[in-house]
UniProtKB/TrEMBL annotation:
One of its GO terms (molecular function) is threonine deaminase activity. This is Threonine dehydratase. NCBIfam families: PRK08813.1. Residues 37-306 form the Tryptophan synthase beta chain-like PALP domain. InterPro entries: Ser/Thr_Dehydratase, TrpB-like_PALP, TrpB-like_PALP_sf. Coiled coil: none annotated. The keyword Lyase applies. PANTHER family: L-THREONINE DEHYDRATASE CATABOLIC TDCB (PTHR48078:SF6), THREONINE DEHYDRATASE, MITOCHONDRIAL-RELATED (PTHR48078).
Length: 376
């Protein structure tokens, strides 16, 4: 996930007239299909939402899509430079895996205090890990300095056209399931921009999700560009101080809404996801689902963007958080009329709401079918 704050706006490259289109997303899909099989969809019945399980992606996050597409596109352009990135987690792991597969030299600058399991994951795939500073801001500035000194290609976690196009392939995989609204977590905006590019032409609403106090994109879209440090949150992967400039432009033109959820809602959703659906997600990975109850739609889909949660954090949540029991499903009955001789058509009686518990004294000639429908 974009584990990215930025020191200040002047550190960012000028995106100028850079344009990302649906054609770029389709080109990314053609590049990635030989390396990354589609991740599964899951119907979370108790939530009434379809889930796109990017927590089952290579390296446990959608981030590998953008990193791999960026390296493949650079190879097509003849750019053989080493790649450097600043990250405290998922972007670094995605870049390390992609560089390993393509034989590209990769350097990741990670702040001191970055999760040990993520540092180990980056090193496992052979990328060089440089730890610098005590915050992402310091790591970011150092990575940009190294890139300028050594002519490395600096690869942003989200504010890069190739990265955005790669993340958009999530939307292409969702499209055949015909949702009417898709909810995505927002940090720097790369995933939201790419998914919106892929789905808006299909008439699908795309809604972003952020956490209270970690809402830099929502504020930026309202014209508030103050540099406010994000608060501590379980969704550490989306703790972005300054959202991307390119992604901000795309989100402003493509997103239908941005929903802000409370930290308590996020924690409860993550625990319910683990206990009721047997799906392990990190904080940012459960964010879109947490926002689902605030979004209307008959066929909702939420992107579970990552599953790289620290085992100690997960154990603490499972021990401390006691989620409310989900509402009981509505029960409906459908009565089958007996089939007359010479007729093959079965006629259904009107649906009848019955109290709970259900007692039906139906004639022998009729059969009662009970179907359960779960609600949030």
């Amino acid at each position: 996930m974009p584990d990215s704050n930025r020191a200040n706006a002047s550190n960012e490259p000028d995106v100028g007239d850079v344009v990302v289109t649906v054609a770029d997303v389709l080109a990314a899909q053609a590049r990635l299909r030989r390396y990354l099989p589609p991740t599964p969809m899951h119907h979370a019945e108790r939530f009434g939402v379809m889930l796109k399980l990017e927590n089952l992606q290579r390296t446990g996050s959608y981030k590998v899509r953008g990193a791999l597409n960026a390296l493949l596109a650079a190879r097509e352009r003849g750019d053989q430079r080493p790649v450097i990135a600043a990250s405290a987690g998922n972007h670094a792991q995605g870049l390390a895996w992609a560089a390993y597969r393509l034989g590209v030299q990769a350097i990741t600058v990670m702040p001191h205090g970055a999760p040990e399991n993520k540092i180990a994951g980056v090193a496992h795939w052979g990328a060089t890990v440089r730890q610098h500073g005590n915050s992402y801001d310091e790591a970011y500035a150092f990575a940009r300095e190294l890139a300028a000194q050594n002519d490395y290609r600096f690869l942003s976690a989200f504010d890069d056209p190739d990265v955005i196009a790669g993340q958009g392939t999530v939307g292409i995989e969702i499209a055949p399931h015909a949702p009417d609204v898709v909810i995505v977590p927002i940090g720097g905006g790369g995933l939201a921009s790419g998914v919106a590019l892929a789905l808006k032409s299909q008439g699908v609403r795309v809604v972003g999700a952020q956490v209270e106090g970690v809402d830099s994109m929502a504020r930026a879209l309202k014209g508030d560009s103050r540099l406010i440090d994000p608060v501590a949150s379980l969704a550490d992967g989306v703790r972005v101080k300054v959202p991307g400039f390119l992604t901000r432009r795309l989100c402003a033109s493509l997103l239908d809404d941005v929903v802000i959820v409370r930290e308590a809602e996020l924690r409860e959703t993550l625990v319910r996801l683990a206990l009721e659906e047997n799906i392990i997600a990190e904080g940012a990975g459960a964010l879109a689902l947490a926002a689902g109850r605030r979004v209307s739609g008959k066929r909702k889909c939420a992107v579970v963007s990552g599953g790289n949660i620290d085992a100690t954090v997960l154990a603490g949540l499972l021990s401390d958080v006691r989620p409310r029991a989900p509402r009981k499903p509505r029960r409906r009955t459908q009565e089958l009329h007996p089939v007359e001789p010479g007729h093959s058509k079965v006629e259904f009686a009107p649906v009848v709401e019955l109290p709970n518990p259900i007692t039906v004294d139906a004639p022998v000639a009729r059969h009662t079918v009970i179907e359960e429908e779960y609600t949030w």
